[in-house]
């Protein structure tokens, strides 16, 4: 064979009589051999396999820019790539589309497609959805890692107020950042529970007191506990608002709106109690205060801030709007049909309880949901048969969408755990790489110092090193591998 200086191979016809369409090439990917013909590969000339057909006339540089190794005798190209992914990618030359096999990482498969220069548009829609989901997971992992790095990093150029603001934000929003932050999160959780319990206990008549006008009101002790809880919630919200990096996003967040709704009724009722009497009648003020006090139930939703389970449930319900919509549609159709049939069948009975179809809606609702209060019930035989069919259909209608909703909950919960574990693993890898980089830097420093020690006696004054038995010397920089020319021999 000719040496590297020659740009052409001897096994090729110099007159170019062998057309690329009729050329047969062998591709060896990870030990798996595949035979291709030029007419199939040239359907997509921009792909790497199609470029192999015309690379032989370009010499070694052209060949080795496309593959890892080449055997001119067998006209076989070698690639150190994933053979399983390659088997899926070559489908584009025969079927015009690509499907990922189960068990292949979508991100790795995307990288393989980029290596073989196959456009992602040939990937089937079902596989694209899987790839998009993995991309979102990687973006979420990157976001979590970045948040942790931002918390750990300290920018020396920041002002003292910015540093204090960041510390307060971590202290109140990230319980995992430190032990005091975890204590504050537990205290906040306890205040929410105490406030909810006080709201419920305050409605017990035996624990209420009578004012000068003869009206019942909450016990002063419970009122003081309520005031202390509201003071804690107010201080927590104000500090979080002040330390928030994005005030507008903070104010419009759903959980922060819940916090405002939990705090606002107390101050509005306090204002009406002291100032409203001068503007309106006392009875109207009391009614307004009672209506506002009912809004205190919003504070129970504050528990979602400290409970990942409630957050997961909320997200699962949000992702299950389609299933919930189907459930409501089934129930609505059944309620309308069975209430109309019940009203019609019960009209012949003199003591019927079905006075109208809208009144029968209530009976259909409690029947299809298998509640059955018994305030309205059929008395005729046909009416009882209609009732039996209605609650059987109700059980089926309710049971059908439950399984997808539970699957959404389990899938999201497991996904959050996987993302959390992946973020921690990514941080551990970053720490390991950082430690290896520092070790390599210190090792190169030792080598420089040892080299300087041979040139002068000042080495002993700079650093003293004692090599232990476990010291691992650097590997030799000599690389034992075949050259491109040797690989072709």
Report on this model:
- The chain is built from 21 helices and 6 strands.
- It folds into 3 domains: 24-145, Potassium Channel Kv1.1, Chain A; 162-305, Four Helix Bundle (Hemerythrin (Met), subunit A); 311-427, Helix Hairpins, CATH 1.10.287.70.
- A hairpin with a 4-residue loop joins strand 3 and strand 4 (76-79).
- A 4-stranded mixed β-sheet has the order 2-1-4-3. A two-stranded antiparallel ribbon has the order 5-6.
- Helix 15 crosses helix 19 and helix 16 packs antiparallel against helix 18 (381-399).
- It is mainly alpha-helical and 489 residues long.
Key phrases:
disordered N terminus; Helix Hairpins; mainly alpha; 21 helices; Potassium Channel Kv1.1, Chain A; 6 strands; 489 residues; four-stranded mixed sheet; Four Helix Bundle (Hemerythrin (Met), subunit A)
Write a compact overview of the structure shown.
The chain is built from 21 helices and six strands.
Q: What layout of secondary structure does this protein have?
A:
Elements: E1 24-29, E2 32-37, H1 38-41, H2 48-53, H3 59-64, E3 69-71, E4 76-79, H4 83-89, H5 92-95, H6 106-115, H7 125-152, H8 160-173, H9 179-201, E5 209-210, E6 216-217, H10 220-243, H11 247-252, H12 254-279, H13 282-294, H14 303-306, H15 308-319, H16 321-346, H17 357-368, H18 381-399, H19 402-455, H20 459-462, H21 484-488
Major β-sheet, in short?
4 strands, mixed
| Count of runs of 4 or more consecutive helical residues | 21
* CATH first level of the largest domain: Mainly Alpha
The stretches of 5 or more residues where confidence is low (pLDDT under 50) are 1-18, 452-489
Q: How large is the radius of gyration?
A: 37 Å
Cα-to-Cα separation, first versus last residue: 8 Å
Question: What's the SSE pattern?
Answer: EEHHHEEHHHHHHEEHHHHHHHHHHHH
Number of strands: 6
Taken from the alpha-carbon principal axes, the silhouette is flat
Beta percentage is under 5%
CATH fold group of the largest domain = Four Helix Bundle (Hemerythrin (Met), subunit A)
Named CATH architecture of the largest domain: Up-down Bundle
Overall structural domain count: 3
Largest beta sheet: strand ordering:
2-1-4-3
Structural class: mainly alpha
The helicity comes to: 55-70%
